[in-house]
Amino acid sequence: MTKPILSIADMSIVFSSPDEADIEAVRQVELTLTPGKTLALVGESGCGKSVTARAVLRLLDKNALIQRGSITFEPKGEAPVDIAELKQDSLPLRAIRGNQISMIFQEPMSSLSPVHTIGDQIDEMMIIHEGLKPKQARERTVALLDQVGIPGARDRANAYPFELSGGLRQRAMIAMALACKPQVLIADEPTTALDVTTQAQILDLLRQLQADFGMAMLFITHDLGVVAEIADEVAVMYLGDVVEQGSVFDVFAAPKHPYTQALMSSIPKMARKADRVRLSPIKGTVPAPKDRPEGCAFTSRCPHAFEPCPTIRPARTDLGNGHHARCHLLTRVPVEEPA
Amino acid sequence: MSTLLSVENLSKHYTLSGGLFGAERRLDALTDINLTVEAGETLAIVGESGCGKTTLGRCIIQAQPASAGKVVYRPKAGGEVELSALNKRQIKPWRQDIRMIFQDPMSSLNPNMRVFDIVAEPLRIHKICKGRELEDRVIGTLAKVGIPAEAVGRYPHAFSGGQRQRIGIARALVLDPKLVIADEAVSALDVSIQAQVLNLLEDLKSEFGLTYIFISHDLGVVNYIADRVVVMYLGHVVENAPTEMLFERPRHPYTELLLEALPIADPLRRKGRKAEVRGEIPYLGNRPQGCPFHTRCRYAQDVCRAEKPALRRVNGTAQEAACLFAEELELKGAYEDGPVKVLHEA
Ligand SMILES: Nc1ncnc2c1ncn2[C@@H]1O[C@H](COP(=O)(O)OP(=O)(O)O)[C@@H](O)[C@H]1O
Ligand SMILES: Nc1ncnc2c1ncn2[C@@H]1O[C@H](COP(=O)(O)OP(=O)(O)O)[C@@H](O)[C@H]1O
Ligand code: SF4
Ligand code: SF4
Ligand SMILES: [Mg+2]
Ligand SMILES: [Mg+2]
Asked: Which domains does chain B have, with CATH numbers?
């Protein structure tokens, strides 16, 4: 097995605010990224996907604290670094950010500057991080724009972001994220705002680039279809917890956590009318973090909740082959059937 | 089934004020649209963003005037009304029959009004009822969509996205409409909430005998909810067919492209489409000659660049497509009979 390049262990993130109690937005999360593989982080809005991802680059808001755990980054041939321990704005952190680990977003304009051409912006990354001369940088930029599928790359390098369509802008952002050949790419809902056809192109592109560059990818989405399409491994989040994780085939074939099961029966199957089943939605809504049950976060909506659920937090149970879930049902001692 | 509404040769263009050189430009948002909505059906309208779905919905409810063509409504009582020929005053009574629900409930609900008044407003505008009767009707409608009576004094911001969409639905339903146009009504909701609202829409439909025009870009949801599907591309209807026929064997290459791009929540059916899904939508101002889809069509022939295909029945069936080769092409559907899998173990 390939060695992991990034391991998040027992990580919790707490937000504080002056007039409210602290919120533990991410709770004891364990995730590993492997070169050449994609881990999808899936869950409904507010469950903690972006916070988890931003922690890896230490891009959290000022009121956030990584309260416990580690983020170990171990690039090939280098000593491991715990990113959680690095000082904000320190040299080692800046050397990692955008260079060895880079990130793309739903909204390309959050990483592209509106007042510079896309070529200049990508050139600059290479000039700063790799010390290339402007001419060399532009050659590589054009090659990269070509590689991400921007037609007429040499001319388009001189375009401003607003002159490009949504799909091309997304490609330009991806090119910029890949400018320094990162070993880890974090993609936070990069296709959510796109039409399905453009989404399919971007997913294909990311797959192709991963094959070319061998990078590890953390792919955030709320769409189980996209997970099934792109991921090797999947982690399902609910209210700050990773409730289930494992190989995408294992988790989709036999989801073990009631929340994962419920999510899967909330989406319509691609079936003929004769095989149509009415959706069975999860009852109620996600509680606010301050109203989270003390035990299992899913207690208030779970159809299987039983005695320990409201008060005792379920442990992370190993189900074999890297499949884990947090649910009391998995450790329940079978009760003798009455004769 | 009887036809509840028909759209005949409807076109809509916008005039864009000139850019650098001041020349005005014309943008054709809808071109010669013909379709009917049968009483009791759920008709889906699908297509990529910018293809004209919302414009069509707004032209049907007469929220904006069409540039050409007609919208004809056939009320249950008999007769027909050409909605597009009526003036503001004449149209008012018919606005009760055709209502619209929007994608973003927050921008369609007045933030300064209590939920009760938001739902009561259409009843007041149309002077349907007042006092106790109005109160009962508002509270009753909100209860139907799952908003309890004790919550009706709150303002929209105190509700979650799913609840706000329920309020938007109550506002549409309180007038006892016949036709409801839902424009991306579940697109912004999280999947578990989306499933709740889809079930609610289905229940309300059978309870009140509604007809839906369901505008969506999500083909998975459309396959689930719709009886018939209209596919739009660049302001044209390119295919119109019963849902199962369309998903089984599309007759327009654009429909095939959309189905191919649709991610399926099953890793065993992963597509790895590679380069099949290609091309970008041309800008509406630069509409291609001939078939509007030819710049992206993998089956395009020379003739497609010259001749514009009309929407027509394929082999005499209920499936209509606007492709010169609709009969010959063997296009791929979405119901792959992959390995049968049990998703849930007890
Ligand atoms: N700046 C902040 N201050 C307080 N709480 C925050 C802040 N940013 C995020 N949170 C909390 O973190 C939770 C997870 O947010 P996020 O990771 O953005 O969710 P998503 O899964 O939609 O990406 C939110 O529900 C919110 O409670
Ligand atoms: N008020 C307007 N002025 C100019 N162009 C418009 C206006 N409204 C819509 N359009 C254009 O008409 C086309 C169709 O838009 P729309 O009906 O909103 O598409 P959809 O709902 O399918 O995404 C788009 O190209 C859009 O930019
Ligand atoms: S621990 Fe209890 S409440 Fe939580 S998912 Fe399992 S059964 Fe449901
Ligand atoms: S008419 Fe020609 S270009 Fe148009 S969809 Fe059919 S094959 Fe493609
Ligand atoms: Mg997010
Ligand atoms: Mg629209």
From this structure: 39-66+86-231 (3.40.50.300)
